[in-house]
Specification:
The chain has 692 residues and is of the alpha/beta class. It contains 22 helices and 30 strands. Helix 7 runs antiparallel to helix 10 and helix 7 packs parallel to helix 13. Bound molecules: iron/sulfur cluster. Its cofactor is [2Fe-2S] cluster; [4Fe-4S] cluster.
Length: 692
């Protein structure tokens, strides 16, 4: 068998790309990974996979991997390879020195949604128990923080309401600002299957995604709205529901509160489709037809993505969708719900694990004395009761000199965060930047310490997917760096004088279960027995919770919230007449750190600018031309692709490549409640360049 090159052993683990969380059987010959086979018993994928999960694992053994720690005194110096002992003592000493000089709040950390729950938990514990502040934030800040806020306000829980299987029972599927075919392919296929079997589809998106029209799929309605008008559209849909007598009065009366005030608000004439058709670019007739279909077509299920959250009103829009689901009784049973399609593999988990600056694990506010006391007793140290800095606050404070040191866990903020120039200025101003990552990424170019991280093939722990499913990530091979990432965090904590130690990742999960009510029934043993578990898992829900809010909402009554539409300050002008919006393609993943280093997925060496033929023609631009894309904050160069997938006045690009760098263009505008950047609306100009 070995001579034929066949695998000799296998390990069941979880894909490290998107929030679908597919399970795979990693098949090995000796220590060599031969192939990833989609696991038929995987709770999220049931034997299916996409190109990334199946083939894009080559980055784990790429020669660019950093396998030894490196330090340097200044970013002008060359990196110096050092022992783990030296890297950890250097990091701990510099963190303590900086705190002694600038104060307890002068340091902080950013956690990653690419790492395990256990790794995230240890970082936030280090910040709270060792740094003595709450300056910890997660990369979810720049993607789904409005989901956390909006769903907590309305339903009481910062998480999607359904399992993926639930879509099989949906009669009307409302997809808003999401492109599951490219970004969540396995779930996208399941959704398409349901549509082929008869479910009706409504898509709200400025761009004509594959879902709108592809073989055997045709959306009943495509509401091709102007970027930045989401809230106006959702309010108009809700207006139709209220004024045409489509409210599920029984559900609202028994399950919800604050309905009357909301009903009066939403019934106002300014929310009528006819009042917003010009603003949104969608005809009143189409809005009305879509609203009627969602409200009367049977089970109505909402799925949404970053096209909802990455706006100045991202949180308002999340609450608007929750209002609509409650008003029509589309919540609390199979086939309905409000469901965020999470981008990264562990966005849900990184948020669950307490890496927001205002929340301890399980979304409990740091000002809650009772919750803090639990951790103070267990961790043996007093905890601060005031929220710490969010990522953009950290950047601002770094520039003004009050924030001096940052620990970044597995996240390339220099490429992924908006207004690159501002991020570079902040990173360049730090006295100490510690990066824990697989590669010398764009952020690491500003770092003083590089702590090599582990790939998903080396990790031992758990990821939590978009349907709250906790999946085991089992080590397929030993860490190539010699250490698990959580071990490194513990060693830094110890070197800073705090006794932090775990024998295993399982022990960290035991501590999470001990202190977090929604995780009480979770352990590695329980996960191994069940395959996976959807939280909440506790005494009330011993087998986990596929569908939330069945009998009552987590907060008791579902709360209607007034969602006033406030236009973004980012408007097209004579100088910047087009609106740029951003997204992803199937074969690439976020900033491309992994997929760019994998030979066996189609690599597109650059991001491309999609431009409507009309906008191209008036600028003398032809397909393939090199163009300058500029906004009020920056300028970059791309090749143009003419496409009628986008409306006149809108252009579109991806952010997978550091050279073309879409975030050189995006602005500092952000969601009013959570500071999630407004990646989806940037006023730009496009000019033909004579030469590439
Ligand atoms: Fe991985 Fe997502 Fe593809 Fe599944 S759908 S294999 S989780 S990238």
């Amino acid at each position: 068998v070995i001579e034929l090159g066949m695998p000799t052993r296998s390990v069941i683990t979880t894909c490290a790309y998107c929030g679908v969380g597919c399970s795979f059987k990693a098949e090995l010959r000796g220590d060599e990974l031969v192939r990833m086979v989609p696991y038929k018993n995987g709770g999220a994928n049931e034997g299916h996979s996409c190109v990334k999960g199946r083939f894009a694992f080559g980055y784990a053994s790429h020669p660019d991997r950093v396998l030894e720690p490196m330090v340097r005194d200044s970013i002008a110096d060359e990196w110096r390879k050092v022992s783990w002992e030296e890297a950890i003592s250097f990091t701990a000493r510099r963190l303590r020195e900086i705190q002694a000089q600038y104060g307890q709040g002068s340091i902080g950390a950013i956690t990653s949604s690419r790492t395990t729950n256990e790794e995230v938990y240890t970082v936030q514990k280090m910040v709270r128990a060792v740094f003595g502040n709450n300056n910890v934030d997660t990369c979810a800040r720049v993607c789904h923080s409005p989901t956390g806020y909006g769903l907590k306000q309305t339903f009481g829980e910062s998480a999607g309401t359904q399992d993926f299987k639930s879509v099989d029972e949906a009669d009307v599927i409302l997809v808003i600002g999401a492109n599951p075919t490219d970004a969540h392919p396995v779930f996208g296929s399941r959704m398409k299957q349901r549509i082929r079997k008869g479910a009706k589809l409504i898509v709200i998106d400025p761009r004509r995604t594959d879902l709108v029209r592809s073989p055997h799929i045709e959306a009943a309605y495509h509401l091709e709205l102007r970027p930045g008008t989401n809230v106006a559209i959702i309010n108009a849909i809700a207006h139709v529901v209220v004024t045409e007598g489509l409210v599920d009065r029984e559900f609202v009366a028994s399950r919800c509160e604050d309905f009357e005030a909301w009903e009066e608000f939403i019934a106002r004439p300014e929310h009528a489709p006819e009042a917003v058709d010009e603003l949104t670019g969608v005809s009143a007739e189409k809005i009305r037809a879509a609203a009627r279909l969602y409200a009367t077509g049977g089970n109505g299920a909402i799925y949404y993505g970053l096209g909802v959250t990455e706006h100045s009103q991202g949180s308002t829009m999340v609450m608007g969708m929750a209002n609509l689901a409650m008003a029509t009784g589309n919540i609390g049973r199979r086939g309905v719900g409000v469901n965020p399609l999470r981008g990264q593999n562990n966005v849900q988990g990184s948020c669950d694990m307490g890496s927001f600056p205002h929340e301890l694990p399980g979304y409990r506010h740091v000002s809650d004395d009772g919750v803090r006391e639990v951790y103070e007793q267990l961790w043996g140290t007093p905890l601060l009761n005031e929220p710490g800095l969010r990522i953009p606050n950290m950047f601002d404070a770094a520039i003004d000199g009050s924030f001096r040191a940052l620990f970044v866990q597995g996240e390339d903020i220099a490429q992924s965060d908006p207004n690159t120039q501002h991020v570079f200025a902040a990173l360049g101003a730090l006295e100490l930047l510690v990066v824990q990552d697989l590669f010398v990424n764009e952020t690491a170019k500003f770092a003083h310490v590089l702590l090599p991280g582990t790939s998903f093939l080396e990790k031992d722990g758990t990821f939590t997917n978009a349907e709250r499913r906790i999946n085991r990530v089992r080590p397929v091979m030993a860490p190539q760096t010699g250490k698990q990432e959580w071990e490194i965090i513990c060693e830094i904590a110890q070197a800073m004088g705090y006794p932090m130690h775990y024998d295993s990742a399982a022990q960290i999960m035991d501590e999470i279960a001990l202190t977090t009510p929604t995780f009480m029934g979770v352990s590695f043993k329980a996960l191994d027995e069940a395959g996976s578990i959807q939280w909440p898992c506790n005494v009330e829900h011993p087998d986990g919770t596929p569908i939330m809010h069945e009998e009552e909402f987590t907060r008791g009554k579902g709360r209607f919230m007034e969602t006033v539409y406030v236009p973004t300050s980012e408007r097209s002008t004579r100088k910047y007449p087009l609106i740029l919006t951003t997204g992803r393609i199937l074969s690439q993943y976020n900033v491309g750190a992994q997929t760019r280093r994998t030979a066996n997925v189609a690599w597109h060496p650059e991001d491309i600018l999609e431009l409507h033929p009309h906008d191209a023609e008036v600028r003398g631009i032809e397909d393939g031309d090199t163009v300058a894309l500029s906004s009020r904050v920056g300028r970059t160069t791309l090749h143009a692709k003419l496409s009628d997938r986008i409306p006149v006045g809108v252009c579109y690009t991806t952010f997978h490549h550091p050279v073309t760098g879409a975030n050189v263009i995006t602005t500092d505008n952000s969601d009013w409640a959570t500071n999630c950047p407004e990646y989806k609306v940037t006023a730009v100009q496009v000019d033909l360049l004579a030469e590439p």
